[in-house]
Each structure stands twice: as C-alpha cells, then as structure tokens.
C-alpha cells in the first residue's frame, strides 16, 4: 500500500505557467482521502513553495515539504525545520574561490533569503529569484561567514553556453566535495555531499515509519533521479527527460495535462485498493 506521495514541483506538479491545475487539486484530495500523505519534494527554497502550500490548503495541517533538493525538511503545520543539512564555512570559501575565477554568479539559500555572494545580482539571477517569489540580495563572503546562518545549498548561474564551459572545467572538482546537479540549463547546484531528494525523502519516510515500497515519487528532471530510484513506485511525467523515463517504473501524462492526477487515479488509487 502506498502511504507517501512525493511530488516534484516544476515540470511535475506545476504546469508550464507555474500554476496548479484545478483538476490536480481535486486528485490530490482523493489521495489524501485514501490515507496517502502528499509531500512536495523540490529544489525550490521555502519562498518558492509557500504560496502553493496556501493554494493547496496544506499550510497549518500536519505534513511536510522537502525543499532545497533534499537539504531541508519543514513541517507544514508550523513551518518549523524538521531536519536539515548545510554547507560549512570551508565549503563556502571554496565555492566563492571558483566563482571568482568564472563568469557564473554564486548564490546561496539560507532560511529566508536568496543571496548573491560578492556581486550585484545579474538579470538572470534576478529572474530566477522572481520565479520563487523573492528578490536576490547581495552579501559579502565575510558577512556570510560571520553570520553563522544555516546555508542549505549553493547555485552557480550563467547563460547556457557559459555554464556548459563552467561545468566542463569545474564540475569534476566540485563533485569531489559536493552533491552536484545541473537542474536547469542555467543552474549548476552544489549541495552538502550525499544530499539529494532521495536522502531527504528516505529520512522522512523512515521517520514516519514507512518503507520505500510504500512511497510513490513523481518527477521529470535530473534532480529527481535519486528520488525515483529510491521510491518503490516511481513515475515519470510525460514531459520528463529520457534519463527520468528510463529509470521510472511508470509513465504518466505531461504537466500541462494533469499527469500527477492521472498517476493518482490510474496507479496510486488502484494499488491501494488491490
């Protein structure tokens, strides 16, 4: 029986306009009524999730969201941190050194802010911050280190061709010290080593007393691969990339056609009635 439904957001739960389809909301309510706990599992920071929690009606209710690509788990009841992993000061110094050698801008997430280290935010960074309903703020490295803030993840942002060169030059070095993923063509992410959506999801599932064969995960992109490999019930969106479709056990419709709802109706609910 499936007890936990892990949902990526962009390209999965949200359509191409970053909106929740009304029919998806109806199908998610059906999953809840069947005793399944839906959990958002996203690379977004908290600011990029809160408006959707309100629309879903989940804020203030028992539940969880896994954000920052698995680095942070928040309770939806009171928005307290359930668990987290973060980057050390030494790791932040290394990330900044590489940023200074490249054209990519280094950004980091703490509990509240989208921070740009040592530079004024570029138009690309400002655009990306807008997608998660916030404005980027400049912070100097020494200020960041002195603040003792919890830094959950870092991202390098640049135009695609420049980031292709960045990944080729610095990717092998960064992969030695961080969990890395090219989550978008303009974003190269660095998380604490061993941290990804699967680690966050498995920690939460175990804490709730669920085994991986009681977990369904739905995703579309590279940062969903580990999560899909972990879940006993793995579903690729119709718009997913080929790597995701290859690893998933099932495939559903696209994010513009309520693929999440289709997976709930055609896979999850029948499995729980068997």
Automatic annotation (TrEMBL):
<dbReference type="Pfam" id="PF08282">
    <property type="entry name" value="Hydrolase_3"/>
</dbReference>
<dbReference type="GO" id="GO:0016791">
    <property type="term" value="F:phosphatase activity"/>
</dbReference>
<protein>
    <submittedName>
        <fullName>HAD family phosphatase</fullName>
    </submittedName>
</protein>
<dbReference type="InterPro" id="IPR036412">
    <property type="entry name" value="HAD-like_sf"/>
</dbReference>
<dbReference type="GO" id="GO:0000287">
    <property type="term" value="F:magnesium ion binding"/>
</dbReference>
<dbReference type="InterPro" id="IPR023214">
    <property type="entry name" value="HAD_sf"/>
</dbReference>
<dbReference type="GO" id="GO:0005829">
    <property type="term" value="C:cytosol"/>
</dbReference>
<dbReference type="InterPro" id="IPR000150">
    <property type="entry name" value="Cof"/>
</dbReference>
<dbReference type="InterPro" id="IPR006379">
    <property type="entry name" value="HAD-SF_hydro_IIB"/>
</dbReference>
